């Protein structure tokens, strides 16, 4: 409704979009028009909102309230920031500090934008979003385009403003049967293309939420609280505002002409990028993390373009995460998603000469703009929250119903409950206003979740089956794992831990292989091997006791004085314990060298056998009460 303080056209500016304090606004800002009305804690189940995955099909044009539209409901955190008005220019800020920082971020970003970035923003504004996401497949991208017959006509950008609007289309010289976006449904990768199109289906539009929230795009707002519209128009007929946000020149004629129908929140392009990314990631989980990174990167170009606020981009990511999960969890799509995954695996292994076990390695070789995982993490994490600041105390996340499906192919060896635990333990903290809406989909950090658990809240048993191939045969968890629980590794597959882990519940290797990829890989508890192989890639510190009843300890010997395995407390070797020594290829120790292997305050027992991967050296053990060294001698 129009503000009682003045006419509709004055509500936006005289509330002081960038300068009004919360105290000054308190007397005139009522509850937001689209505020989510969650039930009281003691309300009956009959009055509780339906889970998003059970109600996502309500996201249609006629439903514009949180009570009728599931997407409007999950974006309800924005109603704590912005009060929707009766028209596009009658809204008012509820959290002016956030919206002020939000617009300032836009202004700084567009002011610092280079010509190359402006052109890039144009390409990703005009190119079909599903096609733009294909580059996240890295070394598999060109193979995908050929197999899916996916094409685009937007390959570059003009130096200035185009004379007319520009839209993507199938080029005249494209091969017969080619299609925009994810490709043709009758192609060699047709099921994957169909899955992408289904995830981006009729219930995935951001338009109902745009109409519900009516938050203006940044270039329609001004920084001067007293003046919104200068009364002038530019060469394209748009009103001229005192706004520091500069739209990329290439996009000036591509803007929407009706402010009422061109809301900023949530960003539709961001929604589309993330929907396509998560569909591709389901079918090609070998590139899961890189696809998430690509979606975040492309979404950022919406701010660079001057077309969207950070809060718009956050909203687009939130709704896409929920919508992708709902579509993938929908029983109606069960056969399609399974067929898409099977088709992608068969196609890529055949074209690359790999197997399910080696495709991941191939998919991370050669030219790849997302090859640096650490750089990807640095790019993704701050863009999950942008200008938002935390308030309030930390609250645990109840993972939204159905969200675990997003990790179904990336962590196929985990149960649904375990995947939910991964999402919970890697989630963003509470206290970010937009992320704390209904079901808190915005707190999910899928980039981090692709690297396994962030904490063992209880004891975790993981079973990897080498015969199942792919991630079930071998996987790596790269997060730093906290928690009071412990880890038991079973199954014939191989699990690698590389994080600086602090879990205290201990580690048990019962079957298969466990690789310690760092000094703190096995946490702060005891370590026990009952069978299988514990492989120490470099050095390993056991903060508790070490017990090896059977199985094999495999370490690499290098020239130096430090033992590869250091145990803080007692070390006990049983009658079936074996030691496998591998000589470092870069710094191989010479014959006659005596090298430390295991340091401990107390050592009980001996290895039943010691092997060396050398045809001309053997190891002579030297046991003491405080550890083990070996002397390498000629055979």
From TrEMBL:
Phosphatidic acid phosphatase type 2/haloperoxidase domain residues: 189-328
Pfam families in alphabetical order: PAP2, PATR
Organism taxonomic ancestry: Bacteria, Bacillati, Actinomycetota, Actinomycetes, Kitasatosporales
Ranges in coiled-coil conformation: none
UniProt entry keywords in alphabetical sequence: Signal
Leader sequence residues: 1-30
Superkingdom as given in the UniProt entry: Bacteria
Protein name: Phosphoesterase
């Amino acid at each position: 409704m129009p503000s009682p303080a003045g006419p509709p056209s004055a509500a936006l500016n005289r509330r002081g979009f960038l300068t009004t304090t919360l105290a000054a606004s308190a007397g005139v800002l009522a509850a937001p028009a689209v505020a989510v009305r969650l039930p009281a804690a003691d309300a009956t189940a009959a009055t509780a909102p339906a889970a998003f995955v059970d109600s996502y099909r309500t996201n249609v044009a006629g439903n514009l309230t949180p009570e009728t539209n599931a997407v409007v409901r999950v974006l309800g955190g924005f109603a704590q920031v912005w009060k929707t008005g009766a028209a596009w220019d009658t809204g008012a800020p509820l959290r002016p500090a956030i919206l002020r920082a939000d617009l300032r971020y836009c202004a700084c970003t567009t002011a610092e934008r280079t010509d190359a970035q402006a052109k890039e923003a144009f390409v990703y504004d005009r190119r079909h979003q599903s096609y733009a996401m294909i580059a996240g497949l890295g070394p598999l991208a060109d193979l995908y385009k050929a197999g899916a017959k996916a094409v685009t006509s937007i390959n570059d950008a003009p130096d200035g403003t185009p004379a007319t609007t520009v839209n993507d289309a199938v080029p005249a010289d494209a091969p017969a049967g080619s299609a925009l976006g994810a490709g043709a449904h009758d192609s060699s990768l047709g099921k994957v293309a169909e899955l992408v199109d289904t995830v981006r289906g009729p219930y995935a539009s951001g338009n109902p939420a745009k109409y519900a929230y009516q938050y203006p795009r940044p270039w329609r707002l001004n920084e001067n609280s007293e003046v919104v519209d200068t009364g002038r128009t530019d060469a394209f007929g748009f009103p001229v505002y005192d706004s520091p946000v500069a739209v990329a020149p290439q996009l000036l004629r591509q803007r929407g002409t009706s402010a009422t129908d061109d809301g900023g929140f949530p960003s539709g392009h961001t929604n589309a990028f993330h929907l396509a990314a998560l569909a591709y990631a389901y079918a090609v989980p070998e590139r899961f993390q890189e696809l998430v990174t690509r979606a975040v990167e492309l979404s950022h170009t919406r701010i660079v373009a001057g077309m969207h606020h950070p809060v718009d981009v956050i909203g687009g990511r939130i709704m896409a995460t929920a919508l992708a999960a709902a579509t993938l969890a929908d029983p109606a799509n069960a056969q399609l998603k399974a067929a898409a995954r099977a088709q992608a695996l068969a196609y890529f292994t055949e074209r690359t000469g790999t197997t399910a076990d080696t495709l991941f390695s191939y998919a991370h070789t050669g030219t790849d703009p997302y090859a640096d995982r650490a750089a990807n993490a640095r790019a993704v994490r701050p863009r999950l929250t942008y200008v938002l600041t935390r308030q309030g105390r930390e609250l645990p996340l109840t993972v939204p119903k159905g969200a675990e499906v997003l990790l179904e192919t990336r962590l196929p060896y985990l149960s649904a409950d375990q995947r939910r635990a991964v999402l919970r333990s890697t989630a963003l903290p509470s206290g970010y206003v937009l992320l704390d809406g209904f079901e808190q989909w915005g707190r999910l950090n899928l980039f981090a979740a692709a690297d396994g658990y962030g904490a063992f809240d209880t004891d975790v048993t993981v079973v990897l089956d080498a015969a199942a191939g792919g991630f079930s045969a071998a996987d790596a968890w790269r997060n730093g794992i906290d928690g009071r629980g412990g880890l038991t590794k079973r199954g014939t597959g191989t699990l690698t831990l590389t994080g600086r882990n602090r879990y205290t519940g201990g580690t048990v290797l019962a079957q298969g292989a466990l690789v310690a990829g760092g000094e703190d890989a096995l946490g702060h508890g005891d370590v026990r091997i009952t069978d299988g192989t514990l492989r120490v890639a470099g050095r390993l510190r056991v903060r508790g006791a070490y017990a090896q009843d059977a199985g094999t300890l495999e370490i690499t010997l290098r020239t130096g004085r430090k033992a590869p395995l250091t145990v803080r407390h007692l070390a006990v070797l049983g009658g079936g314990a074996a030691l496998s020594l591998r000589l470092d290829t870069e710094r191989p120790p010479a014959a006659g060298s005596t090298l430390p292997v295991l340091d401990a305050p107390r050592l009980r027992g001996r290895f039943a056998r010691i092997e060396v991967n050398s045809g001309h050296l053997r190891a002579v053990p030297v046991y003491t009460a405080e550890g083990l060294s070996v002397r390498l001698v000629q055979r």
